[in-house]
Write a structure and sequence with these properties.
Strand content: under 5%
CATH architecture: Up-down Bundle
CATH class: Mainly Alpha
Number of domains: 1
CATH superfamily: Fumarate reductase/succinate dehydrogenase, transmembrane subunit
Distance between the termini: 68 Å
Number of strands: 0
Order of helices and strands: HHHH
Low-confidence stretches: none
Structural class: mainly alpha
Shape: elongated
Mean pLDDT: 92
Helix content: over 70%
Number of helices: 4
Amino acid sequence: MSTGNRPLSPHLQIYKPQITSGVSILHRMTGFFLSIGTLHLAYWLGAMAYGPDAFAAAQEFFASWLGLLILFGWSACFFYHLCNGIRHLFWDVGMGFEIEQTAKSGVWVLVGAVVLTVLAWWIALA
């Protein structure tokens, strides 16, 4: 049996993008960005332990537009990863595997992440 120059498995040029593939890729990306954000948290905690001057510098950074953008992105990644993790818990018990249900739950994950992020920042800034 000759395979020629064909790819061993289908790739992105063959498949049409779907909500399920999008939320799966986004889940992996938010996991990566959460680890980067955790380094910022470690910096903040280290600055707190190092002394008042270091802590004031860390607080100044996180109060800047770049610091707030990082915190906003980290919180959005956190809430998205949380909502999608809850979705995976339902899958672990065998619920929600039908195509229509996976698409709907993917949309609910996105909506939940946006609502929780906005709500958290609204409460924090109030």
